[in-house]
Amino acid sequence: MAASLFTLSLLLILCTLAAATPPGLILTVVNNCPFTIWPAIQPNAGHPPLERGGFALSTLTHRSFPAPSGHWSGRFWARTGCSYAHGRFSCATGDCGGRLECDGHGGAAPATLAQFSLHHGHADFSSYAVSLVDGFNIPMTVTPHEGRGSAPWWVAGRICWRRVRTRCRNHYNSPQTCKASSYSEFFKHACPATFTYAHDSPSLMHECSAPRELKVIFCH
């Protein structure tokens, strides 16, 4: 009898804890393109790679995985036109040094980027933005789900064409020396909700408090 009561009490405690523990943040990558893409993920310094940094994703499929429980920041992009030839993996856009799993390595321009900063601030904020700093290869949308706040979905659409680059590297990489160019202004006019050069407005980062899921949708 005592053992049964103990087991019942333990089950009630476990159920209470499970109900009180909020579900973790889920990251979902969706491929709405009419072709296979190879999503890639690069963490910022000091953060772990997610999903080994890259994978194949067939047309009209998605892949979901848990985000880290602590603070994480980094970027997502899609590689296109990838293939194995002569024993080497390579992609037409977004290639990360001939790797299927980028494992912390960045991608080659042009590539549309989604930038994230997860689990920060007093209200468990997740910030996100779409960037054309490294050019454009395919349309991308970022959407939060079940969070609090007024963060909108963000998109870099088809009107954004092929490529935008600015030379904001080395000693030119500062707000004083890295300014908008005629090329970045063209893309800013077409896609006002995106970063188009390295020191574009920080207000373009939007945040959502405690979202249940963040979706990165390609060809939305």
Name its key features:
single chain; 220 residues; 5-stranded mixed β-sheet; 13% helix; 2 helices; 6-stranded mixed β-sheet; Thaumatin_CS; alpha+beta; 13 strands
Topology (elements, then pairings):
Elements lengths: L1 H19 L5 E6 L6 E6 L17 E6 L5 E8 L3 E3 L2 E3 L22 E8 L4 E7 L8 E6 L8 E3 L25 H9 L3 E2 L10 E4 L3 E6 L2
Parallel strand pairs: 1-13, 8-11
Antiparallel strand pairs: 1-3, 2-4, 4-7, 5-6, 7-8, 8-12, 9-10, 9-13
What would you say this structure looks like, in words?
The chain has 220 residues and is α+β, with helices and mostly antiparallel strands. The chain has two helices and 13 strands; from the N terminus they run H-E-E-E-E-E-E-E-E-E-E-H-E-E-E. It has helices spanning 2-20, 182-190; strands at 26-31, 38-43, 61-66, 72-79, 83-85, 88-90, 113-120, 125-131, 140-145, 154-156, 194-195, 206-209, 213-218. The strands form three sheets. Strands 2, 4, 7, 8, 11 and 12 form a six-stranded mixed beta sheet that branches. Strand 9 (140-145) and strand 10 (154-156) form a beta hairpin.
Instruction: Summarize model confidence as the mean pLDDT.
Output: 76
Approximate helicity band:
10-25%
Overall 3D shape: globular
The profile of the biggest β sheet is:
6 strands, mixed
User: Could you give the distance between the termini?
Assistant: 59 Å
